Structures are given as structure tokens and as C-alpha cells.
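User: C-alpha cells in, sequence out, please.
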């Protein structure tokens, strides 16, 4: 059976089913940037993962809200998002890929602390 891949209307996310087939993986962001809210559910399944390099280099991204349904953030997911200031994420257990937020030099102190708490490891993101 083929994995379902497509672009969600109005949101600008390219998605597919995850390997466990119980949720969605956001593979690429194609929207205009600004304040982005990642939906908790797409096409009737929860968003479980932000894939590798999903937002990498998205200089128009100013803020992102990540729902509790997301438990995995891929390698380089937000790398070099040079205008990213705010990340709203719950301090729940996540699986983090390498360099998830590297090069996000404008990330606020509050977001930096929230990420450190969520990751429970040292974060190096331009401070």
C-alpha cells in the first residue's frame, strides 16, 4: 500500500503517514511564513512528527506553535530559520533530531528556555 502524500489546503504543509500508520509526518512547509500553527490533526490523523529539514532555511518564519500531538522533531527541522523569534512547545517528552534549531539566531530567551526544558538537554542556537 502506498503512503499517502499531499499538500493540505490552506496550510502549506506537505504530509505523509508515519511509519506506524497512526499519524502524520509534516515533510515540508510551503506556506508564506509569519506565525505558523502546526495543526494537531490532518486528514483525521494526529500530527506526530515534524520531519527532517521541514522548515530549514525558511527566513519568513517568525513564530511556530507545536501541538502536544507532536512527539518527534527531525534533524535540521528548523535549522537556519533566521527570523524565528518564538517557539511555543509543551514541556513533554520529545525525540529530537540533531541541529533542530541551529542557526535560529533571533530566537527569544523565553523560547530558548522553553526548548531547553522540552529537550532536557543543552541547546545551541545562537546565544
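Assistant: Sequence out:
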Amino acid at each position: 500500500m502506498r503512503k499517502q502524500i499531499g499538500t493540505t489546503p490552506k496550510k502549506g504543509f506537505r504530509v505523509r503517514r508515519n511509519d506506524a500508520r497512526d499519524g502524520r509526518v509534516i515533510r515540508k512547509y510551503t506556506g508564506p511564513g509569519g506565525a505558523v500553527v502546526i495543526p494537531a490533526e490532518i486528514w483525521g490523523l494526529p500530527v506526530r512528527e515534524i520531519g527532517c529539514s521541514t522548515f530549514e532555511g525558511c527566513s519568513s518564519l517568525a513564530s511556530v506553535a507545536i501541538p502536544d500531538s507532536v512527539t518527534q522533531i527531525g534533524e535540521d527541522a528548523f535549522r537556519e530559520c533566521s527570523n524565528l523569534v518564538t517557539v511555543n512547545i509543551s514541556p513533554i517528552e520529545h525525540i529530537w533530531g540533531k541541529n533542530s534549531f541551529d542557526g535560529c539566531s533571533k530566537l527569544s530567551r523565553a523560547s530558548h528556555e522553553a526548548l531547553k526544558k522540552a529537550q532536557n538537554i543543552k541547546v545551541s542556537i545562537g546565544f
